[in-house]
Write a structure and sequence with these properties.
The protein is an alpha+beta fold. It has 2 domains: 4-118, 60s Ribosomal Protein L30, Chain: A (2-Layer Sandwich); 130-301, Phosphoribosyl-aminoimidazole Synthetase, Chain A, domain 2 (Alpha-Beta Complex). The chain is 35% helix and 23% strand. It is built from 10 helices and 12 strands. It has helices spanning 34-51, 72-89, 139-147, 153-164, 168-175, 189-198, 217-222, 228-237, 248-251, 271-281; strands at residues 10-13, 19-27, 55-64, 92-99, 105-114, 130-133, 181-184, 203-206, 241-242, 262-266, 286-292, 299-301. A 7-stranded mixed beta sheet has the order 7-10-6-11-8-12-9, with helices on both faces. Helix 2 links the parallel strand 3 (55-64) and strand 4.
């Protein structure tokens, strides 16, 4: 698997039992604390591995940093955050590469492994499959609100902990049941990544009143703290969406997420077993929709 199909990661078969899964992701700071930024960026980079049903094994640091612009202690804290998250995943840091750049950026190139017959692609959902999401929406809106000093300290702490959470437990729970398709929700928002799942092969009903989101998100959105990425996502994907086309619950499906949750399709008979698996590891999850035969390529808001 390569760049075709908008898959979350590339896959290369080594033997009949082993395929390597490779991905890379890095971005500018989304929080002020360099240690937490390192954790969030690392968790975000490894998310694509988990979405493919794979296990991360090795990582390489990608760093843009200027020692002339910032104290080297800032870089040490970023890297410490990344290393702690890599260790939590069970992977090994092998090295990396840095570039002198006044705009700080950090992330990882990650390699995982998976059995070639157990790869989970972003397409393959069947009519009647249930759509599940494992992290709340609204990180883009809250991060914009933080820049305007409009978010309480306790809400910031909760946001950071969610963004820094690995999708490891979500992937393990997903793999405990029959899963037909999966992806993670990041920069293209819920609607964008959902469109990648359905393409023109199938449709989906999205239950707006079941969508999970940070409780501060509606007020911040109403107050104008909307990230530019939300408008870009909405402009690009709105023609694939049918139903209510206004209000917070419409906008939230386009909000670009940082280190968002996994989103996947499982048959109805697997829901109860999946819920038992999540309860065993303390993982939050929400049933947010159902895949349908027609209309193909459309997201129906209900």
């Amino acid at each position: 698997m390569g760049i075709e199909g908008f898959e979350d990661a590339g896959v290369y078969k080594i033997t009949n039992d082993i395929a390597i899964v490779q991905t890379v992701d890095f971005f500018t700071p989304v929080v002020d604390d360099p240690y937490w930024f390192g954790q969030i960026a690392a968790a975000n980079a490894m998310s694509d591995i988990y979405a493919m049903g794979a296990i991360p094994k090795t990582a390489l640091n990608i760093v843009c940093f200027s020692p002339k612009q910032y104290d080297i202690s800032v870089l040490k804290e970023i890297l410490r955050g990344g290393i702690d998250k890599i260790r939590e995943s069970g992977a090994s840091l092998l090295g990396g590469h840095s570039v002198d750049d006044e705009e700080v950026k950090y992330g990882l190139a990650v390699t995982g492994i998976v059995h070639p017959d157990r790869i989970i692609r972003n397409e393959g959902a069947c009519p009647g499959d249930i759509l599940i999401l494992t992290k709340p929406l609204g990180t883009g809106i809250l991060n914009t609100g933080i820049k305007g000093n409009m978010v309480r300290h306790d809400a910031i702490e909760k946001l950071i902990s969610v963004m820094a959470e690995l999708n490891r437990r979500a992937s393990e729970a997903m793999l405990s049941v029959e899963t037909h398709a999966a992806t993670d929700v990041t920069g293209f928002g819920l609607a964008g990544h959902l469109k990648e799942m359905i393409k023109e092969n199938i449709g989906v009903e999205l239950y707006l009143d079941k969508l999970p989101y940070f409780e501060e998100a509606p007020y911040l959105a109403q107050s104008g703290f909307i990230p530019g990425g939300l408008y870009r996502n909405r402009d690009f994907y709105k023609n694939f969406v049918e139903g209510k086309r206004e209000g917070f619950l419409y906008d939230i499906i386009f909000d670009p997420q940082t280190s968002g949750g996994l989103m996947f399709a499982i048959p109805p008979q697997g829901v109860e077993r999946f819920e038992r698996a999540t309860q065993g590891v303390g993982l939050s999850s929400w049933v947010i929709g159902r895949f349908i035969e027609e209309p193909k390529g459309r997201i129906i808001l209900i």
